[in-house]
Amino acid sequence: MTTDASTAAAHAPLTEQRGARVSLRPATGAGVVLAVLLGALPAAVVGLESAWLIVVTALACLAMAPLLARSQALSVEVANTPRSLRLHAGRTTPLSLELTAHGDARGLLLDVGVGGPSRAREGAPRLAVPRLHAGAGTRVTIPVRFGARGHHDAATLRVASSFPFSLVHAARAIHLPLGVTVLPRLLAPAERTLLEQFVRTTLVGESTDRAARMRTSGLPVGLRHARPGDRARDIDARASVRKARWIAFDRSDMHDDREIAVGLVLRVKGRASSSRRRGHLAFEAAVAHCASAVELLVRAHGAVTLEELLPAQEPLDAHAPAALEPGAVVSRIRRGASTPLLDRLAAVHLDGAHLDEDSGARAQNARRQGPLRRVVFLPLSPLEFQRAAESPAARKAFSDAGSTWIIGVDGSGRALRLSSAEGSSV
């Protein structure tokens, strides 16, 4: 998958939500009016008539502001919405919605979130709409950004207004029947440089290796009638003269039959010495590296297998390759496209609590064909990462055609090649 997001073309109509709950809280303007009220009150008490006018006006503003702000939040409804939304975590994506207003709505702030209105406010961008006219539908494009990956059956549109004069802030949540798939976060371009170099040079092979494989494949295996798009060097002149029509060589397919698997360890190495939050950050960083590697391999190689691994040893000891035997693979996804692989990565959890009991048996029955190369991303605690960085095994280079490379990732996003399946310790 190369695009950041995609939405379905079909739209589902929404009905008007009656009796919606609106939350009210004081805004900045309320403090200003209250300060003016407290300042004018002593003058009104001693009999200054102009001060009484200020006090009455301030009280009227404070009394009317909640009603006006609430009416603005309730004046907007959603006419239709896309059926689905796909985006990567941490990336801003435009979402198009059609809104209708019962009356003139002013000073609206719109944002979309998942998991309820409280989560929608966590770093989500907002769209400011100065005014919506009553009656006719208006299509607005709202920037959407989610920080946590996962699959969600619905989303929430939060409509907020502080009209007039930011005295009271009114907010209302509208349920959207919008299926949201938040794919794993991808590495930034600066962080992808080393990973891309590793994928292209070590996993896929150097350009000289690819050229050698191209020379041994694509050899003529027969003759066939020429087709549009054939090159001049593919035409057999003798056969063409003899048959009185264009005849071309039938060449064997040029493809790389080596299987490449990308693995993700569902437990954090050294978790006993790290906090739960640090372990979660390390796991999310490993998922981001795994998703970026999948996208790079799909573009550079085409055939990629996703593996989810539970360590064969509990807890993980220093011999990481021995703890990640092929028998520990609990899930294998079909090859050929990044979409199902990224969808699976959007749903993985730390410790593999989502796995079925028989998934390991199904994985062991899967047969690999041809030479295999594997890259496994192992989440590490900060202490384990520091120890691995100081280990001589982390500086070795491995170039076996059928080996396994283990890359350790810590919570800050740093990655380090640890060892291969030859038995080197981390």
**In percent, how helical is the residue content?**
25-40%
The CATH architecture of the largest domain comes to: 3-Layer(aba) Sandwich
Count of helical stretches: 11
What's the total count of β strands?
21
* Rg over C-alpha atoms, rounded to the nearest angstrom: 31 Å
Structural class: alpha+beta
Reading off the top of the CATH hierarchy, the class of the largest domain is best stated as Alpha Beta
Mean pLDDT: 75
Q: Could you describe the largest sheet, including whether it forms a barrel?
A: 6 strands, mixed
Percentage of β-strand residues: 25-35%
Structural domain count: 3
Physical arrangement of strands within the biggest beta sheet: 18-17-16-19-20-21
**What distance separates the N and C termini?**
33 Å
| Shape summary | elongated
Low-confidence stretches: 1-19, 117-121, 206-212, 313-319, 356-369, 395-402, 421-426
